[in-house]
């Protein structure tokens, strides 16, 4: 049975794409806490535009070293209080003791937040590599276990189709993922990737390793190719030659880049769907237009729930 807001997606949407698998499509969206009033307006405009797709949840990121702790909390709390959406708060091990992190977790529980995205986190400012905080949670698996002791949260963790930049090889990386799941994680959301085959191979490896929680592909539409390439290098994601060629000569063509971006991301989503994927997590970068288009292409239709809270 398909979800109420889903319509069949065309099987030839991008020139010969294989028939899509049946079953409901579920989406989730990631936002980051705004720094300025203008950015806050953009964020809430994007939330308002995407909410009618009835996502499973919307996550809010957490800055390096806890730099956005209060803004993350405020954004998550506002989503919970003023919308019908289910917010998920990012939380990292960086820059805090276990007691301080536990206090944040309890604050979320008391505020009615029941979903946390538990991450190790990036190196603190001024550090070239990650160093656990003295007295803090050392790794994401430790953080997951700590959260699980405090409350019956839904806990999402990160997964890396091409391996985490700090992992020595893919086997070690898979062991790290399994530790997080064994500690109590209920789903894994992948780092963004551009090579769909990388995700499909990762899914096969995970299944073979005994991973049974949902593995959600993280999709990031590219409009600024140079910026995306820098992010990919930092996060260990490969950039296929075909993607670089798509954006050649478009440095001063913002509108054309947007059109190219939606074609590339749509092809990725349709191919994932054809390989049995039903859940998609979109890195929105606080912009709604490309994510809206991708949801539509996948067959979802924006249908506000009657009686839901206004935004």
Word description of this protein:
This protein has 311 residues and is of the alpha/beta class. It has helices at 37-50, 69-82, 98-110, 140-150, 170-182, 196-208, 225-235, 241-246, 254-274, 289-297; strands at 26-31, 58-60, 87-92, 115-119, 154-159, 187-192, 215-219, 279-283. Helix 4 (140-150) packs parallel to helix 5 and helix 9 (254-274) packs parallel to helix 10 (289-297). The longest helix has 21 residues, at 254-274. The chain has a single domain (26-297), classed as TIM Barrel, CATH 3.20.20. It has an eight-stranded parallel barrel, surrounded by five helices. The model is unreliable at 6-20 (pLDDT under 50).
SS-derived structural category: alpha/beta
Radius of gyration: 19 Å
Strand order of the largest sheet: 1-2-3-4-5-6-7-8
Uncertain residue segments: 6-20
Number of strands: 8
- CATH fold topology: TIM Barrel
Specify the CATH architecture: Alpha-Beta Barrel
* Element string (H = helix, E = strand): EHEHEHEHEHEHEHHHEH
Percent of residues in β-strands: 5-15%
Coarse shape: globular
CA(first)-CA(last) distance = 30 Å
Largest sheet: 8 strands, parallel, barrel
The percent range for helix content is: 40-55%
Q: Count the helices. How many?
A: 10
The chain-level mean pLDDT equals 89
- The CATH class assignment is Alpha Beta
Number of domains: 1
């Amino acid at each position: 049975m398909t979800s109420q807001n889903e319509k069949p997606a065309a099987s030839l949407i991008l020139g010969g794409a294989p028939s899509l698998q049946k079953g409901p499509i579920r989406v989730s969206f990631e936002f980051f806490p705004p720094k300025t009033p203008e950015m806050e307006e953009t964020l809430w405009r994007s939330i308002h535009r995407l909410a009618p797709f009835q996502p499973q949840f919307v996550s809010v990121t957490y800055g390096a070293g806890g730099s956005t702790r209060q803004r993350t909390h405020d954004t998550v709390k506002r989503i919970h209080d003023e919308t019908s959406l289910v917010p998920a708060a990012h939380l990292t091990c960086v820059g805090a003791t276990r007691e301080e992190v536990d206090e944040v977790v309890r604050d979320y529980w008391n505020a009615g937040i029941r979903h946390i995205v538990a991450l190790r986190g990036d190196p603190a400012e001024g550090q070239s590599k990650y160093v656990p905080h003295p007295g803090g949670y050392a790794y994401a698996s430790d953080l997951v276990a700590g959260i699980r002791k405090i409350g019956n949260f839904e806990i999402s963790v990160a997964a890396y189709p091409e391996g985490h930049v700090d992992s020595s090889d893919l086997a070690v990386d898979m062991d790290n993922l399994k530790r997080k799941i064994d500690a109590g994680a209920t789903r894994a959301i992948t780092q963004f990737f551009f090579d769909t085959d990388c995700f499909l191979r990762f899914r096969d490896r995970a299944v073979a390793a005994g991973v049974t929680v949902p593995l959600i592909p993280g999709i990031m539409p590219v409009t600024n190719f140079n910026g995306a390439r820098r992010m990919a290098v930092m996060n260990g994601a490969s950039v296929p030659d075909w993607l670089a060629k798509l954006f050649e000569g478009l440095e001063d063509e913002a509108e054309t880049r947007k059109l190219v971006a939606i074609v590339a991301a749509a092809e990725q989503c349709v191919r994932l769907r054809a390989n049995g994927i039903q859940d998609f997590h979109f890195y929105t970068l606080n912009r709604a237009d490309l994510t809206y288009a991708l949801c539509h292409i996948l067959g979802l239709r924006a249908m506000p729930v009657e009686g839901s809270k206004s935004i």
